[in-house]
Amino acid sequence: MSTSPSINYCAYVDPNSGEHRIGHLDLTTEQIHPLVFISGTRISNLYQVIEAGEGNIQLGRGDPIPLSQVKLLPPISGRDILAVGKNYVEHAKEFNSSGFDSSDKNDQPTFPVIFTKRATSIIAHGEQVLLHPGFTETPDYEGEIGVIIGKAGHKISESEAMDYVWGYTIINDFTARERQRDHKQFYIGKSPDTFCPIGPVAVPKERLPPNLQLQTFVNGEKRQDATLDQLIFSIPTLVSCLSRGQTLQPGDTLATGTPYGVGFGFRPMKFLQAGDEVKVSVTGLGTLTNYMAATDAINPTVERVKSQSAIPVTNQKARGHEGLVKVGTKELFSQVQGQIEGPPIIFIHGLGGSSTYFSPLVAQLSSTHALYLSDFEGHGLSPTNALSEITIASLASDIRDIYHNARPDRKPATVIAHSMGCLVAMKLALKSPELVSSLILFGPPPSPLPEAGSAGSFARAELVRSKGMVAVADAVVNAGLSSKTKESNPLAVAATRMSLLGQDPEGYAKACMALAKSAKERLDTASLTCPTLILTGDHDAISPPHLCFSYGKSIQKAEVQVLEAVGHWHLFEDVKGVSDAVHTFLERLQ
Hints:
17 helices; 3 domains; metal-binding; alpha/beta; oxaloacetate tautomerase activity; eight-stranded mixed beta sheet; Fumarylacetoacetate hydrolase, domain 2; Fumarylacetoacetase-like_C; Fumarylacetoacetase_C_sf; 27% helix; acetylpyruvate hydrolase activity
């Protein structure tokens, strides 16, 4: 089902997920109907709408959302606005006689007067416009029709120009008149923060009549009233002019000029004051409404710009931050399951795993224990920032902080860990022994990691960054599972592959580097005093029995069990053997 003939496009913040969305705004009922691609994928911005084409867009299945419950966004943003000055005859005359025109001495320009408005000046319908005291004492309005480009073009002829127009929106080209005059060009006076309201919707040109009418009202008084056919330079002329030496891009937006009736045209001149309501209405586009802010209003643009970052965050799988907890500057996936009054258990997964790895144990222990599960930074459902370095120590700190947040009483817990997670668990027990009552370690790697293992982990990180998880999944499965598992336990093979292929390559690579860097530190295992169970498989090449027995001698209260015909993914390969060993150990602790 494609969009209906009445569909328009508005941008808004989804009240549940916090994500930017595109929807249809019913201008009568003031409800937003979410729009999606025909695949069901949500649409984030108007650039996607333009590129996909309306045949690939449909109404979503979600219920309409009252406009009052969402934050409306400008329908198009992110780029400077291309703009035209003095493009209505009567306005050109009033501008020329106002004393604010330093661009030309003629009433009517011979060529289009082109300038830009800074992208940071763009705001949405309903937002406040700053007065900028000290910068300007002459804030003025300019209701305009905005033209949105639909496809890339260079040297576009006037006869073909409308083929490059996608549609229209409303723009209020607020202006600091004395800055426009004193700088003898328009950019400075046109680009103050909040001086470019756009919206509330954008509409394809096919859904609108060819001759749109524009009206502007200030505090209910009609100030401007004109139609597109009154432009000095038509839309085809402007598109052709702009594309003669530069390529126009889909989504480029052109403010076509304002008609007669701006504030400086009155005698005495009527500049805007705090609390003034400015409305711009255009045929089929609704009404763009904004209010002039108080003189001491805080500029919201600063925080909006500060909140934007060019630093990539990878592994952002948790929709609406669902399940994520704040740990310092990080967000990490964390769950609490089981009986909160029961003995606490902290689970720490390994490289290529996630908290889901422990599902068989969770199912058995949830009726008796309080279970605390989390995903490494960059693994499972936990995102990771490119500036965040992952180390064994940082992962241990994350586990500590997550447990502190979830368990204010900080009751000592049994820590169950797998593979690289064992290094994290031992680091946690050494740094925060008051939190760890006992350790259960599945296949702990050597500490320090041998140089060959370190070099291999660094190399694997680079391979994954270049070619993705598929480049290492088979090798890890082949090396990590026992021959018996690979021959007779296809579910364990599938679970291991799924765990690996489900990882974000960058998150996995960063964890590989954390493991590689563990070659620089020898954990003081002799200082571990809590009861410890070390579990390995007789085919575990990463944590072979002789290594585990060495750990068993070093750790004061340790015991070692070796599972027959098991490799390194112990719980996938032998659920019963691992579960029995864990239950027996936990029962002895009671």
